[in-house]
Every structure is written in structure tokens, then in C-alpha cells.
Amino acid sequence: MDTNLKKHIVVLTGAGISAESGLKTFRDGDGLWMGYNIEDVATPRAFKKNPQLVLDFYNHRRSEVAKAQPNAAHIALAELEKDFKVTIITQNIDDLHERGGSTNVVHLHGEIFKMRSIASYHTLYDIRGDINVGDMAPDGFQLRPHIVWFEEAVPMMETAAAIAMDCDYFVVIGTSLQVYPAASLLQYVPAGIPRFIIDKKIPSVGQYPNLHIIEKAATEGVPELKNYLS
Ligand code: APR
Question: Which segments of the chain are extended strands (E)?
């Protein structure tokens, strides 16, 4: 079918969609923020104070993501592209949507396999191994992971909001919706558009007409979503 004639599904994903690939979420009982302080590893202040600690935190994330494989939920979302125009807006820094076959993925919080100079946001470099203190970008400045830390702006938010305003279905999967501005994307979705929430433990989203709750793990919930779409 001509892409222009296909209905547009916009999917906002969080760490829960990658949980069944073996990657830890942030706020569940065994989540990353139970073992680390956000202030110590995920803020610009932390990077100034102890850059190697922050780099090591993300070096570890990178090696975990490299070992992980996309799961049935990532793959089912990619398969929706046969019948729909699908845009994934993910808060995840992993590449499991892409490896699962999705072709249109917006990363709100950056990407673990990219890095940049601390002096420039715009030039990105691929990175598969570790970044260490003393590793310099071609401009002579220290390299850092291409991650949006707490207290930093979210440059892709404007793009994401425009996408959310232009959908026929809006789906939220595996996010506690506690981090803004990502969580506010639901408010950009036009009134009347069907909204779906798939999560093991449904977060509070307020009242919307046409809200469908699928309280299941992502690998079960996403295949079930297909039954609702026409
Ligand atoms: N299937 C579906 N949902 C799941 C599963 C699963 N197998 N496992 C956990 N969940 C759900 C949890 O119930 C929770 O609602 O995933 C959600 C995970 O929430 P968080 O850990 O808060 O992750 P997320 O919402 O992605 O965090 C947002 O916080 O620290 C930052 O930048 C980081 O992008 C991240 C942001």
C-alpha cells in the first residue's frame, strides 16, 4: 500500500519494552536507579565532578546493549509497518527497535552507540567500545556519550511533539511516564485519537476517551495490540 494512504501509528516506548531483552529498567524494583543515584551518573554536574564514573556507567550500558537481542515486542512493532505508517519515539538509548526492523525511530534521550565532543552537539561519531577520560574528539575536546542527561534540554522534543500531533493511533509501551518532557507527549495527541497503554503495571495517565489499557508484558501486549487496529 502507498505509505501516504496508510494510517499513522505513533508509539512512545520506554525501558519496559527492552526489559524482556535483559536490559534493566530504571524505576522497577531491580531498576538502575535503585543501584545508582541519578545525580552521580546522569547529570552534567556529575560529569564535571567525576567524568570517569559517568563514562563507566555508560560504558557498562553499552556492553549490556551490545549483548542484548530485540524481543518479540520490538519485532511485532516492526511488522506493523506492513500495514501502517509507524513512527517510534523512544526514550531508550538502546538500538533494539532498529535491530528489530523498525525503520522510523526517533531517540528522545540519545543513543548509546553514538558519542560527541563536549563542545559540540552536532557532530556524532559511532562508538562500540568504551569512552575514557582523555579520549578526544577531532576538535580537541573530551568525548562524551550522546545521551540526554537530567537537567539538559531534549532537542528532539519538538520533532516528537509534531509527530504526536499527526497520528491516527497513539501507543505507549513500558514507560512509567515520570520523566518530562517525554511524558507530556500524550497531551499533544489530538482529542478523539485512540490511545493504548501497554505495561506490566499501568502508570497513571489521567482520563482520556478512547483509552485502551493492556496490562501485560510487552511481548504479550504488542501482538495483542494488532487485534485492535484496523
Ligand atoms: N513489559 C512492559 N512493561 C514493563 C515490562 C515489560 N516486560 N517491565 C517493566 N515494565 C514497565 C514498568 O511497569 C514501568 O512502567 O516499564 C516501565 C519502566 O519505567 P522506568 O523504569 O521509569 O523507565 P522509563 O519510563 O523508560 O524511564 C524514562 O528515565 O532515567 C530516565 O532517561 C531514562 O529514558 C529513561 C527515562
Answer: 8-13, 85-90, 105-107, 110-117, 124-126, 143-147, 169-173, 195-198, 211-214
